[in-house]
Amino acid sequence: MRSNKSDLANLIHGLSTVSIGAKPLVGNLSLFKSIAVVGSSCSGKTTLINEIKKFTLCRTTKVVVPLRYITRPKRKNDIPDENIYISRKEFLKKVKSSQIYFRWKKKLDSTREEMFGFKPVIAGTMPVYSGNNGLLYNNDTVYPRGILDTIIFVGIYAPDKVRKKRLFMRSPDLIQDNPEESRYRLGDSSEKIIKHVHFVINNYDSYLFNSGHDIVELVKRLKKCLILRVT
Predict the structure, then answer these.
(1) Is the CATH number of domain 5-66+125-173+185-225 3.40.50.10190?
(2) pTM for the model
(3) How much of the chain is in helix, strand and coil states, percent to nearest 5?
(4) CA neighbor of 190 nearest in space, from 175, 205, 200
(5) 4-43 CB burial, b ≥16 within 10 A, e <16
(6) Where would you tag: which of 3, 88, 105, 231 has the fewest CB atoms within 10 A of its CB?
(7) What angle do CA 151, 80, 222 make, to 5 degrees?
(8) Domain limits of the chain?
């Protein structure tokens, strides 16, 4: 069973930056348990995730943005309190002790992968995961198996030329110190994500005036439809 597109259109009514993605939404929205925000590098995921963190339901613990564990080295312009940077050994230790539950790997260049993960969330809350495109293109590394079928994917979109400009402004150390990773990130085109997500939020040019408001409103509307985790 696929949800009716008119139902999804009603869900995003009045949200000028949001459109329906090409990923089929199989089954009723109430079958889903969480949201993952994804998008190519410098599309603006972190900025919009921060808007969700300010959201009243986050402060009352009904919606939670879990801290993300990551094995790549910290960079100069990384946002504070977005990630917990740990070694691969520490990451695997936390997996073994069940401190990391939802996890996957993302390719950062042609030869290197890094691990990403989140600890289990508190029962009765709805997680909004700060994901990345590894969830879309490297999904054979995702654990636990089947979790992707319970996630609503929200893709953040900015044209590739905009992303390139942002990357040079945000991460000059990455451009200088790791040009191969920079090329790999820019080669991960924003255009590709559209067919892999349920909803798309445009986050560039004049859309920037409303995209923060719209992602918060979309989360509020989805929360009314999604069931809360019980384990």
Answers:
(1) no
(2) 0.90
(3) 40, 20, 35
(4) 200
(5) eeeebeebbeebebbbbbebebeeebeebbbbbbbbbbbb
(6) 231
(7) 25
(8) 5-66+125-173+185-225
Q: Where are the alpha helices (DSSP H) in 2-68?
A: 5-11, 45-54, 56-59
Neighbour-count burial of 70, counting CB atoms closer than 10 A to its CB (0-12 exposed, 13-18 middle, 19+ buried):
buried
CA dihedral 24, 204, 103, 71 (to 10 degrees): 160
**pLDDT the model gives residue 153:** 96
**Beta-carbon contacts of residue 16 (< 8 Å; ≥ 6 apart):** 207, 210, 214
Q: Which amino acid is at 52?
A: I
Q: Taking a C-beta distance cutoff of 8 angstroms, is the pair 87, 69 a contact? A: no
Q: What is the rounded distance in angstroms from the CA atom of residue 202 to the CA atom of residue 43?
A: 9
Alpha-carbon torsion (20, 25, 30, 35), positive or negative? negative
pLDDT tens sequence across 51-107: 999 988 888 878 999 999 999 887 766 666 778 999 999 999 999 999 999 999 998
